[in-house]
Amino acid sequence: MTAILRSYSLRLLPQLIALAAILLMVSFVFPGFFRLEIQNGRLYGSLIDIFNRGAPVVLLAIGMTVVIATRGIDLSVGAVMAICGAVAASSITSGHSLAMTLLITLGTGILCGLWNGVLVAILDIQPIIATLVLMVAGRGIAQLVTEGAILTFNDPGLIFLGSGSFAWLPLPVIIWLVFGILVALIVRKTALGMLIEAIGVNRQASTLSGVLTPVLLIAAYMLSGLCAAIAGIIAAADIKGADANNAGLWLELDAILAVVIGGTSLLGGRFSIAASVLGAIIIQSINTGILLSGFPPEFNLIIKAAIIVFILVLQSPPARNAFTFLALLRASRKPTERQAR
Amino acid sequence: MQTAGDNLLSATRIDKVFPGAKALDKVDFHLRRGEVHALLGENGAGKSTLVKCLTGAYRRDGGTILLDGVEVDPRDTFNAQKLGIGTVYQEVNLLPNLTVAENLFLGRQPRRFGFVDVGTMNRQARELLENYELDLDVTRALDSYSVAIQQVVAIARAVDLSGKVLILDEPTASLDAHEVEMLFRIVRRLKARGLGIVFITHFLEQVYEISDRITVLRNGQLVGTRDTATLERRDLISMMIGRELAAEIHSARKEPDVTGPVRYRFKDYGRKGHISPFDLDVRAGEVVGIAGLLGSGRTETAEILFGAHRADSGTAELDGKAVQLSSPRRAIAQRFGFCPEDRKTAGIVGDLSVRENIVLALQARRGWTRPISRTEQNRLADHYIRALDIRTADREKPIRLLSGGNQQKAILARWLATEPEFLILDEPTRGIDVGAHAEIVRLIEGLREKGMSLMVISSEIEELVAYSTRIVVLRDRQHVASLEGERITADQIIEAIASSNERGAA
Question: Tens digit of pLDDT for each residue in A182-198?
Answer without folding.
Answer: 999 999 999 999 999 99
